[in-house]
Each structure stands twice: as structure tokens, then as C-alpha cells.
Inverse folding.
């Protein structure tokens, strides 16, 4: 087995720096209003089909063009949770990094979707993300927990708001104690 010492030292430096930065970080409430640079998210027909297959949804509205054209939507639409895949299109840091959270203790807390219009294959969505809520509270088994809500508003290529999603990222206070 070959161990890359430089890689190990880099990771050790990263974790020491993260912990030091955390100790000198701003109050959690100061995150509220922080915005992420807007980015585009193309909605591809093949990716919609792959996503529907992955979640076990065999509704033909997600992959059968003839069926979709005869539907009230008149085209292939994305499944309700498909836009979660925007994370693969967003450049830059993760939600945890944006919020200054310790990645070793981060978990996904909740996801909420508020639709205004269907999202169609071929749409190009512009995503605008910001932190709308940030607070801490005492956990039952793992110490203080930090909750950060990211709100993403999606606009189609015509500038129409199609969706607002809210995602909660949680940092536990450490390893859960029994």
C-alpha cells in the first residue's frame, strides 16, 4: 500500500485550519442574507429520465415524449425533487463551506419545494441562492447544533420564477453520545 504523505499533511492542515477558523468565526446570525453567486442550471431530457429511473418513478411524463406531448403539460417535465441536482452545476464551495460549518459533523436536515410553474426539459434555470435563517440550539446527544437554511429561487429562461427550494444544513456539536 502506498500512502501519499503530502496528501495526508494537506488534509491535516485543512482540518486544523477549519477548527481554528471556527473558533474565530462570526456569530451564526451574521450568515443571514449571505448570497451565493447566481448560476445557470440546464434541464436536460436525458438527465430527467435518469433521475426518474434512480428514484423508481416510472411515470411516462418524465421520459416518453409522445405521452408528454398529449398531457396537459405538452412536454416532458422534471420530477419534483429533480432540482436538488443543481448542486452538480453550482461552482464553488458546498453549503457547509459557505456557512463555515465543520464538514465532519454536517448532515442534511430538510428539503422543501414551492412550485410556481412546471420545469420542462430544455429549460435553462438561473439559480439565486441565499441564507435565510441561521441559529443554534442544544442537541440531546451531540452537543450544540447549528441550523442553516439555504433558499434557492429558480427562474426559467424567460425570467419567470418557477420554484423556490429551501434546504436545511445541520452541524452537530460533535460525535453523537449514547
Amino acid at each position: 500500500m502506498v500512502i501519499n504523505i503530502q496528501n495526508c499533511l494537506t488534509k491535516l492542515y485543512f482540518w486544523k485550519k477549519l477548527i481554528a477558523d471556527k473558533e474565530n468565526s462570526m456569530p451564526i446570525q451574521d450568515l443571514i442574507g449571505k448570497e451565493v453567486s447566481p448560476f445557470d442550471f440546464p434541464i436536460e431530457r436525458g438527465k430527467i429520465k435518469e433521475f426518474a429511473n434512480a428514484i423508481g418513478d416510472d411515470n411516462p411524463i418524465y421520459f416518453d415524449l409522445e405521452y408528454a406531448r398529449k398531457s396537459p403539460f405538452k412536454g416532458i417535465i422534471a420530477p419534483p425533487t429533480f432540482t436538488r441536482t443543481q448542486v452538480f452545476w453550482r461552482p464553488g464551495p458546498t453549503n457547509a463551506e459557505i456557512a463555515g460549518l465543520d464538514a465532519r459533523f454536517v448532515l442534511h436536515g430538510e428539503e422543501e419545494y414551492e412550485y410556481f410553474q412546471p420545469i420542462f426539459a430544455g429549460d435553462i434555470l438561473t439559480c439565486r441562492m441565499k441564507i435565510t435563517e441561521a441559529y443554534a440550539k442544544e442537541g440531546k446527544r451531540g452537543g450544540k447544533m447549528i441550523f442553516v437554511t439555504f433558499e434557492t429561487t429558480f427562474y426559467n429562461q424567460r425570467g419567470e420564477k418557477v420554484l423556490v427550494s429551501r434546504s436545511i444544513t445541520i452541524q452537530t456539536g460533535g460525535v453523537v453520545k449514547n
Notes: Residues 1-20 have pLDDT under 50 and may be disordered. Helices lie at 5-23, 45-54, 65-70, 95-99. DSSP finds four helices and five strands in the chain. The first strand starts at residue 35 and ends at 42.
